[in-house]
């Protein structure tokens, strides 16, 4: 899984990147299953490997599938990342060990959910009862976020068909510079794709 | 608290380290790559790292999945599962929002490379 | 074009009802096994996305128009919030399901069911709406083209 992640960072072909990110999601789902999180594994497999891949491909079809080549590796970013990672790993030294039942996270409210949810809520799947009943407010908020995100997508690109969209003149002017010929607004996008793929 | 002689206890931290390595891979992608789609993929890697971190904290050795059944005494912690379950779906919705912005940027600037966008904006400021 | 491939079309035709059925199972069996509104919504949306990939977005939009998915989007949140308001009207607190039925278990069960249903509706609506938007044809008023089975300008074929 880690190898997949690093491969992802290095790859230039965006199509391959997206396929790999689907594989990465599937690995994550398998990992969740090993760690007893059946609901989460289920969601990750459906969402990460399914829907996000399709959405990213949709984006790709509207933009370009080849990344511009940058030769230099940014040393500043590398140092920053390594330093942050080092500090974080140092921070884990005091953390409870994997699977420790005495870890603080397993001593708090979770035990109450496990012991009383059959009595107080009913469903045998504790995840469902916590999700919908104990933490109903939380889930209401999450649902609202999903709603807002979908509305946001509609607002941002819901009317791409509109040729008079502000800003498109700027992109057209740029394409004219590249191609040395005037471009009609309608097929501007297509020409740009051709220009970038050749 | 930490006992440097106990090597086997270090192995118990491996789950955190995997999460951190993944997180840093995503972090590097976000700050060092110039391609906007690649940045979104980087954010996804980062996000999954956080998920792995949470889920691995909720695991209890010998525990089973938190679906109540007679005869099973020990369950893993259901709380991180609930939090991450909703976070995954919200995550894909926000990813879609980010991708929509990328499409819109491509429409306006004709490119999804960050440095090219900055050059264009700079040029326009000069003209204006 | 995808749609020229009979194998894909036949397999998709076999699969889609099963996927929808599975989504409903996940939705309503989520109390007992793994599953719930979030997963069910996503799986439900996946069935329609598969349909649009194989048969073209335009045909899919006849099956479930964009206005319907947008209504689903809002309707789910309404069900969720409405459940909370109903519990308030029945004398409880916001999202306190105990008052929904005579017994605590009955009330909780009904409450969880309604809330999960709301979540599933919203998530399915959101995912299909987002997919339709990304496939570039959110405008309901566009006239239908002659070739119904052609995946329209979004170059979905690229990926396969």
Supply the number of helical segments of chain B.
5
Question: How many structural units, i.e. domains of chain C?
Answer: 1
Span of the ends, CA to CA of chain C: 10 Å
Order of helices and strands of chain B: HHHHH
Which structural class should the secondary elements of chain C be placed in? mainly alpha
Shape of chain B: elongated
Shape of chain C: elongated
Quickly list its features:
heterotrimer, A: 198 residues, mainly alpha, 9 helices, extended, C: 160 residues, 5 helices, 0% strand, disordered C terminus
Question: How would you describe this protein?
Answer:
Chain A is mostly helical and 198 residues long. Chain A has helices spanning 2-10, 14-34, 38-62, 75-92, 110-120, 126-134, 136-157, 168-179, 188-197. Among the domains of chain A are: 1-67, no CATH class; 128-158; 165-198, no CATH class. Chain A is extended, with a radius of gyration of 24 Å. Chain B starts with 6 loop residues before the first helix and ends with a helix. Chain B has 128 residues and is mostly helical. The model of chain B has no long low-confidence stretch (mean pLDDT 83). Chain B has a single domain (7-127), classed as Helix Hairpins (Orthogonal Bundle), CATH 1.10.287.3510. In chain B, helix 2 (14-32) runs antiparallel to helix 3 and helix 3 (36-58) runs antiparallel to helix 4 (78-109). The longest helix of chain B has 32 residues, at 78-109. In chain C, 65% of the residues lie in helices and 0% in strands. Chain C is mainly α. Mean pLDDT of chain C is 79; it is low at 137-160. Chain C has one domain (2-140). Classes of the chains: A mainly alpha (198), B mainly alpha (128), C mainly alpha (160). At the A-B interface, helix 1, helix 2, helix 3, helix 4 and helix 5 of A face helix 2, helix 3, helix 4 and helix 5 of B.
